[in-house]
Each structure stands twice: as structure tokens, then as C-alpha cells.
Amino acid sequence: MTVAVVPAPSTIRDVGTAPFRLAGAGIVGDADAASALRTLLSALTGSSPGGDERTIDLQIEHGGAPESYTLVADETSVVVTGADAAGLFYGVHTLAQLARESTDGWVIDAVEVEDAPRFRYRGVMLDVARHFHPVATVEAFIDRAAMLKFNHLHLHLTDDQGWRVHLDARPELTRQGSGTSVGGDPGGFYTKDDYRHLVAYAAARHVTVVPEIDMPGHTHAVGLAYPELVEAPVLSEHILETVAEFGGDAPAAGVAYDGMAVGFSSLRIGDERAYDFVADVFGELASMTPGPYLHVGGDEALGTDPADFAAFVARATEIIADLGKTPIAWHEAGAAPDLAPGTVGQYWGFVTPTDGMDDAARAFVRNGAPLILSPADAVYLDMKQTADSPLGLTWARGITDARRAYTWEPTAVIDGIGEDDILGVEAPLWTETVRSLADIDELAFPRIAAAAEAAWSPPVGTSALRTWESFRERVGRQAPLWRAQGIGFHRSEDIPWR
Length: 498
Fold this sequence. Notes:
By secondary structure, the chain is an alpha/beta fold. It has two domains: 11-115, Chitobiase, domain 2 (2-Layer Sandwich), CATH 3.30.379.10; 121-461, Glycosidases (TIM Barrel), CATH 3.20.20. 33% of the residues lie in helices and 18% in strands. An eight-stranded parallel β-barrel has the order 10-11-14-15-16-17-18-19, surrounded by seven helices. It has a six-stranded mixed sheet with strand order 1-9-5-6-4-3, covered by helices on one side. A three-stranded antiparallel sheet has the order 2-8-7. The radius of gyration is 23 Å and the shape is elongated. The two termini are 15 Å apart. Belongs to the glycosyl hydrolase 20 family. Keywords: Glycosidase, Hydrolase. Its EC number is 3.2.1.52. This is beta-N-acetylhexosaminidase.
């Protein structure tokens, strides 16, 4: 039996009886879970189960590991039991994946599943700064992430190309800094009501929003609104080479930037007004964000003196910690000696680290905090899947096909960083080339499923399911469900699609 479940569960066993037929079945138990299951099965099969011949029973029984569930299906009944609401939600999505069409109609194979997540942080990131994406697109991305058992959405809300969330304390940020995207495309921003809606929409699907305000670099848009807070662009040879390769104008003070170069902008580190700005921005954002994390960025500050950079990220993380939130920063910030205790690091280097990226990442663990792993050459969803794709980039060691996205192990990336040092795995999707939900789907799927498995499932090689050969078969069997949900996935040649 090939079990079409992604991410792979902790254990799954064939019960050996005839399958459970969905026709004539009734759904009972938890109302929210029942509604979610009806929606999933209706999209997949064209009808929702209804009747009383057999039952699908959805229940919460507290006491198990957080987010865990069991699923028992035989010829007469299906019972899904979650240790909490999130666990039951994930069990419902596993049940929908198990549904298949047979000569007897739609059925659920007779199996027993025991499942729980490997890591407590399982994230995806959507960059809404390089290209702005409206509320409906973010909602769809949340739905796609939640069905694969991701539980965090990292929103990259600001960058050189645009500021995407309105704040009453600094209204000029959206008034002056939100109008453009890469390539001169239209910009946009979220009102405070939009942002609160997305937070609530995500929470209803057991997803926590992690907002990122990138500092001290990636801040050119800040200068459009508050020019006194930023330095003049630093036009290094690297910046000019990027402009020559990808087009557009070189960045200029006071002029909206719609190119793809990075590392030329910086806040004025020695100016106290910059820290008033940090306090205003994160203070208001914290009041709208019930989740525990605020992301301060800290990456690619190539135009900032290293000592100034260290002083800034130390003070910025302290401001966030004083708000009662846990700061997250990209791994470069690990070079700073005085980060706020507990600051979580996010590693975006390669599966085999280069240029001291692993040293900076290890510093977070020495400071008493875990790491989020986002190795760019494995889980950056914006890398090209094929050489001829018009979408995506190739700077992370070239093409990232589905097999490369799958065949890595989190505990093997950074020497000295083990299971207990890892908070989780996050798959970022940067949007320099991404304009629409169709573009998001084309780049994310099926590789987002590989990232989900790295975050949820047991380590590579520890079960028959945690192999590339098993994964490609299981993902191939997701095609009917993904199509039913309107997902325009990339039909990778490595996958035997069914």
C-alpha cells in the first residue's frame, strides 16, 4: 500500500480490513473540524459525506503531545482524535489526503496513524515587499501552508522596494513608501484592519503570523517617508553589477527603488531618532500581533559598518524584548556580542555552510536561543525549479529541483547544532519575480511539501517513508487533492504524478 500522506506521519499501519466507504457516511464530533473536513471532501469528491450508515468521528482528547493526533480507519468507522484543536485539524487534513477513488467510489483505506510534529516551529515566509500581494492571495497561501501542517507565516513586510503595513505612529511610511514594486509594478499596503484580519484568518487555521520589519538595511523605502533616518545609498561594485544584470536604475536617495540589488541602504545607526523609529514601529506592531515573535531582519546590511551593525541589532532586539516579544533575526546578527537574551536566529546559508555563516548561527545557541533553519539551496522556494523557468533566481547554487529540496537533514547542516538547538524549519518565498498566486503556486509546489516534511516528519532515513523514493510517490498522489483546491503546482519531472 502506498500511503498518500504528506508530510510523512510518525507511524502508519495497514489494518488489513476493507476500506471505509465515504458514500452514506456521516461526520460527527467537533464542529470546526467537521466543517473543515466537509469542505475538503466536497472539493475533492464533488459531494460531502452525509448519512448514518457509518461515521467519521472527530474528537479532542487532551493529554497527548501538542499538535498530535491519532487516526483509526476500518471498514465500519473512522475516528480522528487530536490532543488539541491543532492536532485534530492536522488529522482532518491527513484524512482528506487518504481519500481515494476506487471501483466502490471514494474510500479511506483501513489504517492506523499516530502522528506528532518533530519541530514546534514549522514556517513559510511570503515576501510582500518586493511585490505586493493582496489580502486574498495571502489567505490562499495560509490555506496552502496549513494543509501541510505548517504553523507559522513569516510576513516580510518591508524592504527597499516598499513598506507594506500602515502604522498610525508613522503614517508617511505607507503614504510615501508603498507605491512601487520590483520592475515598476504597482505597490500597495495593508491597513491595520487588513493586518488584523490576516492574523485572525491564520489563527483560525492554527498558524501564527510572524511580522518582519527589516533593519538596519533594506530600508530605502523608509527614506522616502523619513529621509532624516537613512544614510545615502552605498553604490558598491556589487550593487552596480546587480543593476547591470537585472536592469533598472541604480538606487538614489529620495527616489523610489524598483530594482533587485540588495545591501545598499541603512538606517543612521548613530542617530537617536533611528531608535525612536524602531520603538514606534515595533511598539505598534506588537500591539496588533498576538503571536510571540517579531522579526527584526538584520540581513545583508552591506552598506553598514560592522561595529555600527552590531550596536544596532543589539539595541533593536532589546527594544523588542522589552515589549514582551521574542526577537528573531537573520543569522548575520549572530555576530553582534550583545543581542537581547533569547533572540532566535534564522539561518539562510547553504546546506553546507560557507563564509562563516555557521559561526554566526552558532552564536545564537551560545546566547541561549534556538535556530530556525532556512538553507537557501534547499528550502528557498523562489529558486528556479528548471533552467528554462521564467520564474525564480539561481544564486543559491543554481537550480533547486524537488529532489534537492528533499534530501537534506536539519541536524546535519551546522556542526555542533543538534535536535534540541533547532526551533524549526522555515521555507521562504521571496518575490522579485513573483506577481500572482499562480506564480506562488508554480514556485512553491511541490517543493513546499519537502520543506513540510523536514519540519514535521521524523529524520531522514529513520523510516521507510522518510526517503526520496517514498516522498516522490506520495507527493505524486497529491495531484487530485491539489487540483481540487485550485493549486497550480509545477509538474516536476522527478515526480510520478497520478
